[in-house]
Amino acid sequence: HKEYRRQRQMCIRDRDDAERAVILRLKHECGPDYTRKLETMLKDMHLSSNLRSAFAEAGGASTPFEFEVDVLTQAHWPPFHDVPLTLSSSMQSALLRYETFYHTCHSGRSLHWCHALGSLLVRADLGEAGVKDLVVSTLQAAVLLVFNTRDVQTFSELEQATHMPLHELQRTLQSLSLIHISEPTRPERIS
User: Integer distance in angstroms from the first to the last C-alpha of the chain?
Assistant: First the structure.
C-alpha cells in the first residue's frame, strides 16, 4: 500500500507541474484574466495538501480509515450537485474532527461538504468471490455500509438509513449492481 501511495504522490507532483506549464502557456497566449480561475483551482489543491499534512500532524488522522479532504474555493470551481446524505457514525465523527481542526486554522470560514464528489476504498467480503477492495463513491459507500448490520435490506430501509433522495438512491443502487470486479494489475516499473 505504501508503494502505491508513493507512486500516486509522484504522479500527482508530475501532474501539478504539467498543469502549471499549461496555465503559464495559456496566460502568455490569452492573458491573466483567462487563467485566473485555473490558477486559483491549482492553489486550492496545493493548500488542501498543506491542510492534510497539518491535520495529520495535529493527530486528526487517527481514524480507523484513511481520510483526506480537499478544501475548494466554491466560486472558482464548476458548480456541482449536492446530495443530502446520512453518513456512518465513524465517517461523521471524522468530518466533525476535521471541521474542528479547520475552524482553529480559519475561524471566519465555513465548510460545505459535497459528498457526491468523494470516493472511498472499501474492503468487502463478497462470499465466494473473496475479499475485494472496491473503489466507490461516498454515496455508494453509505449504501454498502448499511449492509454491515444485516445482509438483506429493503429499498425503504436503505432510504431510511441513508436519507438519500429517491432518485439518487435508485441511481446509486443501479451503479452498484453494474460494478465489474476485476483483479488489480500491478503497475509497470519505471527505471
Answer: 20
The set of cell numbers assigned to 146 is 448499511
pTM of the predicted model, to two decimals?
0.74
The answer on pLDDT for 9 being more than 80 is no
Q: SS3 sequence, the chain?
A: CHHHHHHHHHHHHHHHHHHHHHHHHHHHHHCHHHHHHHHHHHHHHHHHHHHHHHHHHCCCCCCCCCCCCCCCCHHHCCCCCCCCCCCCHHHHHHHHHHHHHHHHHCCCCCCCCCHHHCEEEEEEECHHHCEEEEEEEHHHHHHHHHCCCCCCCCHHHHHHHHCCCHHHHHHHHHHHHCCCCCCCCCCCCCC
